[in-house]
User: What shape does this take?
Amino acid sequence: MAYAYEKRDFERVKTDTAVTLYYGAPLKEVAGICMNISDCGLGLELSAIVPLGTECHVKVHDGHQNSGPFQALVEIKHIHPLSKGRCQVGAAILEMF
Assistant: This one.
């Protein structure tokens, strides 16, 4: 059950797990950290700014040898710039692989 302050069916789960985003042509690769995940989106901290509205292939690496990474097609919905070219982004999950 979601709390009153969370207007969603599922709460966000904190992960702090390595993530890689792939987008554009030629293909660009951006490393980062998946800070949290919910049923419809991801909270990410990235090493570079990815433009708003960009569709990206994302791999969340969980560190377990016996399972592959979580992979999805996401769209960057909001960006919060940080220092040293980094940023925090909210990404909506469009499709899971």
